[in-house]
Structure to design on (181 residues):
């Protein structure tokens, strides 16, 4: 069973044991296990992570083997920066990892697609939209949320209905009135 948040004393002990006073930039590059060409032992396997990395990345443990090496490397870098984050940043990271781990694959895909779509919008436009949203009353925000839910429900993609097709008679095939002998 993994704790959602690390206590400062436990975290300090883990830092002391795993990093021996290394600075963040050194930890980030030097503590990332390298991918091995040997299929038997992959340095990015869960068991090859340091105790600190395993503790920080605990919400992702069940999904670890399904992640690609590039994502594993990204998460290892995040874990290596973790000791240098403020307590609120650590709490936010742990909460978001736990929330992500709970999401079904379909919702994760939607979240990734939404994120990639948001990258196409200029920062100024996003800031203006957020400011406009903040100016809305709570009632208007609820109404907007309900409209979004309605759009999602009505925008569901369904398979088209199967249409009956006309039977095509070919010279080599049986005709509708013929009998098999």
């Amino acid at each position: 069973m993994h704790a959602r948040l690390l206590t400062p004393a436990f975290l300090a002990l883990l830092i002391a044991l795993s990093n021996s006073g290394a600075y963040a930039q050194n930890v980030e590059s030097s503590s990332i296990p390298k991918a091995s060409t040997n299929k038997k032992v992959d340095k990015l396997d869960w068991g090859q992570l340091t105790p600190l990395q395993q503790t920080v990345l605990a919400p992702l443990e069940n999904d670890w083997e399904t992640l690609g090496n590039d994502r594993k490397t990204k998460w290892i870098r995040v874990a290596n920066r973790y000791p240098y984050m403020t307590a609120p940043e650590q709490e936010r990271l742990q909460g978001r990892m736990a929330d992500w781990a709970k999401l079904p694959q379909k919702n994760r895909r939607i979240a990734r697609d939404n994120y990639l779509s948001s990258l196409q919008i200029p920062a100024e436009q996003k800031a203006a939209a957020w400011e406009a949203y903040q100016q809305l009353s709570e009632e208007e925000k609820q109404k907007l949320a309900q409209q979004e839910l309605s759009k999602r429900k009505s925008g569901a993609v369904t398979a088209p209905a199967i249409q009956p097709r006309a039977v095509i008679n070919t010279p080599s095939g049986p005709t509708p009135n013929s009998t098999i002998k």
Summary: Residues 24-122 form one domain. Residues 14 and 52 are 6 Å apart (CA to CA). Helices lie at 8-19, 24-30, 51-56, 69-81, 87-102, 105-118, 123-135, 138-154.
